[in-house]
Amino acid sequence: MSLLRASFALCGILALANTLLAESALVEYLAYLAALAAFGLAAWWPDPLPPPPAPGQWSAPAAGRERAHAECSGCGREVDAGWSMCPYCSARL
Questions:
Q1: d(CA 10, CA 55)
Q2: Is the dihedral of CA 78, 84, 88, 89 positive or negative?
Q3: Residues lower than pLDDT 70 in the chain
Q4: Are the C-beta atoms of residues 41 and 74 closer than 8 Å to each other?
C-alpha cells in the first residue's frame, strides 16, 4: 500500500470519527460524504508508473543499416523493397 493510499484511508477513518462526535445532522452527513470520498480514493487510486529505464539500457541503432528501397510501377513513389503492395496507390509491386 502506497503512502498516498494510506493517508486517504486515515482521512476516511478520521471522517468517520467526526461523524460520531458531530452534534449537527448536516455536519454528520458531510463527514459521511468525506469518509466515502476518502475511502474511494484509497481503494481506486492508480498505482504509480514504474521508473524510466536506465540511460545505458537501450542500444543505439545501427548507423550503416538502411532499408532497401524500390519504386512503385503504378505511381512512381519510393517504397520499401520488401513490400508486396504500394500503400499509396494499392498497386502490386
A1: 38
A2: positive
A3: 1, 61-65
A4: no
